[in-house]
Design brief:
With about 375 residues, this protein is mostly helical. The protein contains 13 helices and 4 strands. The chain has 2 domains: about 150 residues, no CATH class; about 120 residues.
């Protein structure tokens, strides 16, 4: 199988999958414009080509490191289909931060991505996020004055309600701490959740800011990181029941058809590496969430605000690491279930399964003691 075939197939799978943690699929949104006029009235990007692309949180491969002046583990990658809608013909791509970004962006999108332009500001805000989770992406843009059509964000009313219910339960202790009307109630918790998840959460949290003695900037940044922690804690709670099931399928799925020497050498060991790397990443996510839990308990149960103040100060940086690791697991879970629905016979070739595993290994934020993302195996690598 040629590298071109593998690249095209990966592009199509990426566009068709439900992996919203890693991918913003503007190709699909363009196809939906006829049934959702708001997508035209309130576009994500103003540039037509850019607004018909895939935006991906991409893990930098070893051979791509020389493209950047400074070492970095990931980048926001723009993938523009060659003909505007059909990825079978391939795509042109560039990554924010690469050495020749401005020249390449001008060649593809004209002046749209020059510093200070609407589309560049939107792209820079996306680049600040550790993943493209639709809830976080929408909130990041809204808090900075950008509100694309809701159809660009793959998050349902049911998802939002479940997430709000989770956060409501999480902040109940803070409601108890701040309540001056006796025992807390659901309405009070709901109001606090609305304030916390609004575009201006500081509007209802003045007393907390005063208690923690934080500047306006440190407090605003910290609260946004706090919101991110709560979101990822909810995501992990939603994913956990499915995790064991998917891990079992990864370790047992059998491809159909003849195996190439490359896939025969790669697949058996990749299964074990993937299981170990996923478990390691989830453990890392839980470890960071535990930092928040301890700080929150110190504030709400022990009446000691210092730990929570320290948490808010460190939350923006921790939020990035948390998002990268959580997003990697989200991508694996959503893509796997998209590609292999429950109750259906598994139909996958050895080479395609190898591509899926390679993508998963390359995208995991924490690989088990591996300094580099995996490369496609060579035929002479014996099992």
């Amino acid at each position: 199988m040629s590298q071109k075939d593998r690249t095209v197939r990966s592009l199509i799978a990426l566009e068709q999958s439900a992996s919203t943690a890693r991918v913003l699929n503007l190709v699909a949104a363009r196809r939906n414009q006829s049934v959702d006029p708001e997508l035209i009235a309130k576009p994500f990007f103003e540039n037509r080509v850019l607004n018909s692309s895939l935006i991906v949180k991409h893990r930098i491969r070893p051979h791509e490191r020389e493209m950047f002046a400074k070492p970095q583990g990931s980048a926001t990658k723009i993938m523009a289909p060659m003909d505007g809608s059909d990825l079978k013909l391939g795509a042109r791509f560039l990554m924010l931060g690469q050495r020749d970004f401005d020249a390449c962006a001008e060649a593809l999108f004209g002046d749209a991505l020059k510093p200070g332009q609407h589309d560049r500001m939107v792209l820079d805000l996306m680049d600040e996020l550790p993943s493209l989770d639709p809830f976080l992406l929408r909130e990041q843009l809204k808090r900075n004055g950008f509100e694309p059509a809701r159809g660009y964000f793959a998050i349902s009313d049911a998802d939002i309600e479940r997430m709000y219910a989770f956060v409501r339960a999480e902040v109940m202790a803070l409601v108890t701490l701040s309540s001056t009307e006796g025992a807390p109630n659901g309405a009070a918790a709901s109001r606090l959740v609305e304030k916390l998840l609004s575009n201006a959460p500081d509007s209802g949290f003045g007393p907390l800011q005063e208690t923690l003695r934080l500047s306006d900037k440190d407090y605003a940044d910290g609260v946004f990181g706090w919101r991110g922690f709560l979101y990822y804690k909810w995501v992990l709670a939603e994913l956990t029941p499915q995790l064991e099931e998917v891990l079992k399928e990864v370790s047992t799925v059998q491809p159909m058809g003849p195996r190439s020497p490359e896939s025969s050498a790669y697949l058996p060991k990749a299964r074990k590496r993937l299981e170990a790397a996923i478990n390691h990443t989830v453990a890392g996510v839980n470890k960071m969430l535990a930092v928040y839990d301890r700080a929150y308990c110190s504030l709400t149960q022990d009446g000691k605000p210092t730990a929570f103040r320290d948490f808010l100060l460190s939350a923006p940086d921790m939020f990035m690491a948390l998002g990268e690791q959580s997003g990697s697991v989200q991508h694996i879970m959503s893509f796997w279930r998209y590609r292999f629905p429950r109750g259906r016979r598994v139909m996958v070739s050895p080479d395609e399964l190898m591509d899926i595993f390679l993508d998963f290994e390359g995208g995991l934020a924490c690989l088990t003691d591996r300094a580099e993302a995996p490369k496609a195996p060579q035929a002479d690598q014996a099992a």
